[in-house]
Amino acid sequence: xxxxxxxxxxxxxxxxxxxxxxxxxxxxxxxxxxxxxxxxxxxxxxxxxxxxxxxxxxxxxxxxxxxxxxxxxxxxxxxxxxxxxxxxxxxxxxxxxxxxxxxxxxxxxxxxxxxxxxxxxxxxxxxxxxxxxxxxxxxxxxxxxxxxxxxxxxxxxxxxxxxxxxxxxxxxxxxxxxxxxxxxxxxxxxxxxxxxxxxxxxxxxxxxxxxxxxxxxxxxxxxxxxxxxxxxxxxxxxxxxxxxxxxxxxxxxxxxxxxxxxxxxxxxxxxxxxxxxxxxxxxxxxxxxxxxxxxxxxxxxxxxxxxxxxxxxxxxxxxxxxxxxxxxxxxxxxxxxxxxxxxxxxxxxxxxxxxxxxxxxxxxxxxxxxxxxxxxxxxxxxxxxxxxxxxxxxxxxxxxxxxxxxxxxxxxxxxxxxxxxxxxxxxxxxxxxxxxxxxxxxxxxxxxxxxxxxxxxxxxxxxxxxxxxxxxxxxxxxxxxxxxxxxxxxxxxxxxxxxxxxxxxxxxxxxxxxxxxxxxxxxxxxxxxxxxxxxxxxxxxxxxxxxxxxxxxxxxxxxxxxxxxxxxxxxxxxxxxxxxxxxxxxxxxxxxxxxxxxxxxxxxxxxxxxxxxxxxxxxxxxxxxxxxxxxx
Amino acid sequence: xxxxxxxxxxxxxxxxxxxxxxxxxxxxxxxxxxxxxxxxxxxxxxxxxxxxxxxxxxxxxxxxxxxxxxxxxxxxxxxxxxxxxxxxxxxxxxxxxxxxxxxxxxxxxxxxxxxxxxxxxxxxxxxxxxxxxxxxxxxxxxxxxxxxxx
Lengths: 632, 150
Prior knowledge:
The structure holds 2 protein chains of 2 kinds.
Chain A: H1 2-28, H2 30-41, H3 44-47, E1 54-58, H4 60-66, H5 71-75, E2 107-111, E3 114-116, H6 125-128, E4 136-143, E5 157-163, E6 171-179, E7 184-193, E8 198-208, E9 225-235, E10 239-251, E11 264-280, E12 284-300, E13 315-335, E14 338-356, E15 359-360, E16 368-381, E17 386-399, E18 406-418, E19 422-433, H7 437-442, H8 444-447, E20 453-465, E21 469-481, E22 496-510, E23 513-527, E24 530-546, E25 549-560, E26 568-578, E27 583-590, E28 599-604, E29 611-617, E30 623-631
Parallel strand pairs in A: 2-5
Antiparallel strand pairs in A: 1-4, 2-3, 4-5, 6-7, 6-30, 7-8, 8-9, 9-10, 10-11, 11-12, 12-13, 13-14, 14-15, 14-16, 16-17, 17-18, 18-19, 19-20, 20-21, 21-22, 22-23, 23-24, 24-25, 25-26, 26-27, 27-30, 28-29
Chain B: H1 20-34, E1 40-43, H2 47-53, E2 59-61, E3 70-73, H3 76-89, E4 97-99, E5 111-118, E6 121-127, H4 128-133, E7 146-147
Parallel strand pairs in B: 1-2, 1-3, 3-4, 4-5, 6-7
Antiparallel strand pairs in B: 5-6
């Protein structure tokens, strides 16, 4: 009996010991299990498509730690194409600082996979380049030619904003911020997951009091703006509907003044975007979108303003309205080792009206552009580690008013390899871009019939990843033929050659402490009337947590040969105090050293026609912000 | 292992699914900390979690809350109906509840903890006072995830 009792006791003790050991073993790993869970279940892991291009990712965690409130806060840290604003104070990363209306149509912006476009006026980036991102979960920047399933019009860089999901962000959030010069913003969101559907709504208002630019007169250039923004969606398992509205009233910096001394320079925008997408069974998906933009410009100068149809007038009070209709039908199926994607897309851009001084002024016959596009893409799995990808897209652009039509052919060939730690991908591509309608409309004599730009390129990316770190190197060679960007003032048609490289090193010390490093180098041949231009940048950031406090420190560095290798530093720091699970207070400083990158804003003396010294303008304000965030 | 299949993730739809392996691993940790049994009976009516737990060697699913060792709740309507039945049980056969939403913790002291998302990071939280009521002591390694009360 004693033996039996003893045996039972031993058995029980062993079981208990096993359980305890098991518990301890699991518990010992709880931090690493949690870290792995975080990495694998970030929503970005569900949307990243390695085949879309070369990715720079901002996860939700990173955005929260950065306290990024606008897309600009994120864009200013990216390599290759930097955040810039043009002479109208609008987000225009490819601006030359000269007199062109808008230049960044090579960059396309998407919200939840649907492009936001201003159609006739250009890329959606024009208004959404500094959009309030309180509704956003994560952001993906894909560099170089994207896969054709995402784009209606060709692009170098595609920016994808993905909204929060009520399953993780149910309930409400109120965010109040106040800062230097009277800057203030308010944002309120609410999302809910119901049994059959979920919805989210975000409403924000920003009164951006910004630094003025000294132009040598008693009235410095202003770029303050007031923006009211609505983002909303409702979605089911197979359908989604978005409604977005933005009203932005802005002081438009130099505006239409040749010498950047406007008497009046204001622009007001009202923008509506709607889209609806539905999965038609396992393979098919249909999507329609509508974008509408009203632009109200008020410009005055002592001398004639720079719009070509101003007939020498010193004022320009114009109101443009334009609509864009987009539709697409795509098909995806896996057949054997092939993942086939094919589809047709259409876009119709129309300049609805143009009124000047309250009167109809739509005299040009060129008012519409129709784009029809067809694409096919095959991703062939050579093995469980290797993928070959081939894409072809053909776009036909029809224009009215006897303006020449364009045919664009895009080709993309890629190879991807991945194992547990290493990955490699390379793409060879040919892309063609057409000049945007606004340029043709504003200057028909010079830009009515312009040949498309053809770009040839090759990219290579190699990366190594383990639990603690990721190292990545990207190399890129590209050549433009009949460049649309090449010195428009003296005529189109130059060829530019590019070599760029990006190096990334990310290190996770633990769950609470992380570091990111990014270095960028570019060498351009034959650009902006220059034989050679070299450009370098870097971004180093640290995110740390200690008890109830979160810290972010990030510095962006820029230097280029055009600027005699002047070094620019944009230091952003923030500290957050999480009072409770629901209430957080943050103190944030942007451009703390007041040395953020500046670019030239060119000026011409209207009396002599001579070039004046350009103004140096930074799109990044120096600002201290106090922010209060309440979850309910 | 990260395989080439990740390149073929081209899903239609806009619903975000949980990653199975890491989710199962995490819930093994959580349930093992709360229940000292080699096989843990779990009640949940969330289809996504059911699909994940069904592959587990250490979790068995049950359709009846009263037969479970622990109840996992992911939505508010289920929370109310389970809380109601817990009240009926009148402490005799009350089952510990674990949730995936921080706000649910405020609804009842029968909820021992939560595993939820906050600002892009998952958060694990156990409430000591409530664990004590169920005579549960989580291993020492979980002390960073333990709060005395809400």
